[in-house]
Design a protein that fits this description.
295 residues; eight-stranded mixed sheet; 16 strands; 18% helix
Length: 295
Amino acid sequence: LLVSGEPHPGERTWRNLLKSDPSVDLVHFTILRPPEKQDGTPIGELSLIAFPTRELFDEKLDEFDLIIFDRYKRRGGVLPIAYFLNIVDYVENGGAFLAAAGPAFASPFSIYRTPLAAILPAQPTGETTTGGYTPGITDTGDRHPVTADLPGAESEPPSWGRWFRTIDTEVDGGDILMETPDGEPLMVLSRAREGRVAQLLSDQIWLWSRGYEGGGPQAELLRRLAHWLMKEPELEEEDLRVGADGDRLNVELRSLDPLVEPSVEVTLPDGSTRQLTLSHQGGGRYGASMGIERT
């Protein structure tokens, strides 16, 4: 479920990404006109389709794998407080929520001033910073599968186009994967009981999709982000996998924590054990292999 708080260039980026993914069924609504606006427009012309708030945020909320609020701002006439409480319950019971912030996130109309504050790791300071900068990957981001090995990230700074706005926040939980050159958070991921939450603290990623200054890996980044939120096993940040390839047993480990000489204990068919030391393969990946005898 994608809810855009207002028409803006970035909503096409989200829509195109999600519509192009064959594993995603997208339901998208854009708030074209705030309900408090009074300009004499006939009632029958106020919307192209009614926003079915009760159906989406009460009756069928649990049917969605991911809810995205794109530059959404709090409006009492659209979503009552009870529906924000429903979203919190949905996330804490295993759902996923992504907030793509715009300037309204730093305003009195911020969704942080709703029950959603209970699950959002980044709190707005009320300030917005403008000016060109190249987004960067943090040390944690270098190890996290959502942002590790993104095309262009191997240089310093990354060979990506600039963004021009950041919503200033204070982060009190989760993992910061992307930041500005000044250390301001740009992408924060966290867990809320059984569910997952992500915040993108700039509304400028659409510049990459337009190819501004060469663009950036927005399609791959947002695809990974959406699938991590929906608990794609390949994107787990703490993961151990074992598999056979011919006469070799391969062990692969991923972890956000820097590990010194990690090892695993392999139990052989005869009951004996063997200690296998894993080597660092870049980012948060470690691996090793050993010969096996097939019987």
